[in-house]
Amino acid sequence: MLVALAGGVGAARFLRGLLRRVKAEDLVVIANTGDDATFHGLHISPDIDTLIYTLAGVAEGEKGYGLKGDTFHVLDALSRLGHQKWFALGDRDFATHIHRTMLLRRGHTLSEVTFSLCEAWGLATRILPMTDSPVETRVVTERGDMHLQEFLARDHAEGAIQRVYVHGIEGAHAGPSVIEAILAAQGIVVCPSNPIISIGPILSVPGVREALRVTDAPIVGVSPIVAGAAVKGPSVPMLTAQGVEPSAYGVARLYSDFLDGFVIDQRDAALEGRIAELKMHVAVTDTMMPTPDDAARVADAALGLLAQARNA
Fold first, then answer.
1. What is d(CA 152, CA 140) in angstroms, rounded to the nearest whole number?
2. Sorting pLDDT into bands at 50, 70 and 90, what band is 125?
3. How many whole angstroms separate alpha carbon 232 and alpha carbon 67?
4. pLDDT for 196-231, tens place per residue?
5. Rounded to a whole number, what is the largest CA-CA distance in the chain?
6. Residues 267-301: tens digit of each pLDDT
7. Helix (H) or strand (E) holding 17
């Protein structure tokens, strides 16, 4: 069994390549829920939905999230009634959130709801929410303390970041099977997701980082930073705000207490020696993933590092 720690778009694109190399039923994905939010009375799980839609082959390709070819009549109608529309929910996408909210109100857990969604889309890969506990990633800027989605979608990531934290994480519990999956895995991959707002919340769930430190499985990561810039999103200012060097080396060092190997882009080849000094194997390749074939190439590098670490 292979386990992946995943955020949204970057992770989903990587995983579609990984699934060209491993059987879907042999992959377990632990997904970030820190960016979950309530809009129009509905519980939205952006990263989980992005993973499901992408792995089901129905995601909007250009944006990487939402459903391909979706329309926005409901959102337009809500706007006409005076409601905000800055978080773009498509008409068919609304069905996912209505389903999730209905089941949660009936007493089902987020893990149970996510399983039902994976079944509905015919996915053999298990997607495990990092926690069923209510947590939310928040960003503090000069404009105030706000939910991550307000910062990203409403404010378009504008404003100097002062602090990023996950509200409620101290009292959260790892989702069912999360710790067990980590401890039973034959290999673990940290996807190329934002280290602060995508992977960071997963690592902050009590017990998760400790499990990664003690598992017998080799663990490798894929850098989301290329030549000092993020492939997508505000990773660089967020790393800087947390006092982390915004580079492939900085990310590797952030994970160095449990990582055995790290895949970096060819444009960061000069950092290979520094990263190797962190006592991890390094693979250098083109980490851009515009197509599934490209994603498979990056997956090959990650799987190669897992084998290397396992045999070391």
1. 12
2. very high
3. 19
4. 999 999 999 999 999 999 999 999 999 999 998 888
5. 62
6. 999 999 999 999 999 999 999 999 999 999 999 99
7. helix 9-18
The secondary element (H helix, E strand) that includes residue 229 is: strand 229-230
CB atoms near residue 243 (< 10 Å): 7
How do the domains of the chain map onto residue ranges? 27-131
Instruction: Read off the pTM.
Output: 0.96
**Phi, psi angles (nearest 5°) of residue 165:** -150, 165
Distance CA 196, CA 137 (A): 10
- The structure tokens 């303390």 sit at 145
DSSP 147: E
Q: Can you tell me which residue has the tokens 């089901």?
A: 56
> Distance between CA atoms of 209 and 200, rounded to whole angstroms?
10
Q: Domain 27-131 carries which CATH code?
A: 1.10.8.240
Helices 46-55 and 110-120 sit at what angle, rounded to 10 degrees? Answer: 20
Residue 309 has a CB neighbour count (10 Å cut-off) of 18
Instruction: Name residue 107's amino acid.
Output: G
State the DSSP string of 262-292.
EEEEGGGGGGHHHHHTTT-EEEEE----SSH
Place of tokens 């074939």: 293
Q: What percent of the chain has pLDDT over 90?
A: 93
Cα(148)–Cα(75) distance, integer angstroms: 21
